[in-house]
Write a structure and sequence with these properties.
- The chain contains 16 helices and no strands.
- With 367 residues, the chain is mainly α.
- Helix 9 packs across helix 11 and helix 11 runs antiparallel to helix 15.
- About 7% of the residues have low confidence.
- One of its GO terms (biological process) is microcin transport.
- Its main location: membrane.
- It is a multi-pass membrane protein.
- Keywords: Cell inner membrane, Cell membrane, Membrane, Transmembrane, Transmembrane helix, Transport.
Length: 367
Amino acid sequence: MAAYIFRRLLLVIPTLLGIMVVNFTLVQFVPGGPIEQIIAQVEGQGDVFAGFAGGETGAPDLGNDLGGIGAGDEKYAGSRGLPPEFIAELEKEFGFDKPPLERFLLMLGNYIRLDFGESYFRKIGVVDLVLEKMPVSITLGLWSTLIAYMVSIPLGIRKALRDGSRFDTWTSGAIIAAYSIPGFLFAILLLVLFAGGSYWQVFPLRGLTSDNFDQLSLWGKVVDYAWHITLPVLASTVASFATLTLLTKNSFLDEIKKHYVMTARAKGLSENRVLYGHVFRNAMLIVIAGFPAVFISVFFGGSLIIETIFSLDGLGRLGFEAAVARDYPVVFGTLFIFGLMGLVVGIISDLMYVLVDPRIDFEKREG
């Protein structure tokens, strides 16, 4: 098993390299860039994404440094009133005076040293920026995944044991209906019903904690945290119940019909011993195989809309705003970090296979 893990870790390097090459190449063909963002700000046209301009984001106020004299570089739209020296200075500051290949190799060299650079517009390191936004995404991803598994696995087992019953029919209808509702629509519905929209003011409208969080007792902090995350976590989790529940049910149904189950029952083993001592271990393999995808999708995929609706400042909004504002250090830094996390989670998934069923040997399978 150690040799298999070592080979998987070695594969992380070319996989990450391929991800970075593809995305860096695509970015070269995307219109606009950080220089265009600053030119638009200086020319008084506003920014493509206003949240990245000026004030709290740390974007420089360049309007007083120009004087509006001279002719700008023709390759930048709207730069005709800017001095060429200013355009050249911007290119040098952002590293665009170098050819793309050299920029890419410099970026990889910095990443090897775990230096992800600094945001163009926020004047803060990419790692510090990710760590600042991480609590929100961890809250949504971790709790949503745990709740989905804690509900879906027992429910799926119950549905398998009562296959075809009214309980099975009604629960299938309920989870499929929940799956069909878009996450953002369900989130808005929760706000309208329980966050003071039109009916009850039960939960807070925004934020992860209250303003007086630091002054609360330990138990008060726990309650306040749970109070704030209830609606966002519920909105993130509701769609994942259907897939996990039906996957668990079908896995159990397949295993229950196999000969070893009938043999175990014929030997006089109790039903619980048959289900949880034999069937559970085999049926859970396919469920565990989907764990990385469920976790990553909840952690990164659906967080943007949920974070926006509930006014949470997490990794989803960070990545979206960075892409819109062409904040390339944040875009590539987060892409590298998230890609690395996804690959590591995949290796952890294989280890969980072995933990659930020690009979699995990945080295023999590869041989």
